[in-house]
Specification:
4 strands; alpha/beta; 4-stranded mixed beta sheet
Length: 108
């Protein structure tokens, strides 16, 4: 394994927090009842403070726990391509509020 134990623990905590946050947001949007749909599309939009070249693969990899949070909310059965289409990330600039938005579209 690479990296320090402390670094791996911090990454694990951040992933759990992201997963839980996405699940909570979806549940709150639906007042606690989340209807299960057959298939969705997820478009990640990253808002950064500065303009520079970004690696799409790293950005996509950082969202695994967010996709798991969508499944945890029971919006879809699984995060496999059969149920969730993962679109390529888009990068934008927001100097004041850097963030990641997930645009979820119901396909079926």
């Amino acid at each position: 394994m690479t990296g320090s134990l402390g670094g791996r623990i911090a990454k694990s905590k951040a992933a759990k927090k992201q997963r839980s946050l996405v699940k909570s947001i979806i549940e709150n949007m639906h007042c606690g009842y989340v209807p299960r749909v057959k298939r969705i599309s997820v478009k990640p939009i990253f808002f950064h403070q500065t303009h520079r070249k970004r690696d799409e693969d790293n950005a996509t990899g950082s969202l695994k726990s967010a996709y798991d949070g969508i499944v945890d909310s029971k919006l879809v059965k699984d995060d496999s391509p059969e149920y969730m289409v993962r679109e390529n990330p888009e990068f934008r600039i927001d100097k004041h509020i850097p963030r990641v938005e997930l645009r979820i579209t119901i396909l079926e």
